[in-house]
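User: My instructor asked us to take a sequence, write out its structure as tokens, and then describe one feature of it. I'm not sure where to start. Here is the sequence I was given:
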Amino acid sequence: MSLNVSAYRREDPESPPTFLDEGMAPPFNELAGPETARQLFWGSLALERRGLRLLPLLHHGEVWAEGAAELDALESEARQILAGLDAICRETKSRPGVEYWIQNILEASGSRVE
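Assistant: Let's start with the prediction itself. The structure tokens for your sequence are:
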């Protein structure tokens, strides 16, 4: 089982979502890591110590970021992970794919991936 990321828009809180990430340009896709990443990476103290609040929620379930403020916070957290990637990966004993998962989150949320 894998963790997936999807971006959507709603016209109002009661309307069904319109997914925005269908057909993401390669090399991006919906993958945010394997199921084991919930505990080993997303649920790690390494992320919480850095003050992240949204992405560590993947430890327990899905993350729903709605509205400009939450999407900005999601982008900020993803970029913070990228900025400290080497240290975070050492602390969590993770590496293969982590940068790719973060880039998928940025791409799905409509952020520019560098």
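For the description part of your assignment, you could build on this observation: The mean pLDDT is 81. Try explaining in your own words what that tells you about the chain.
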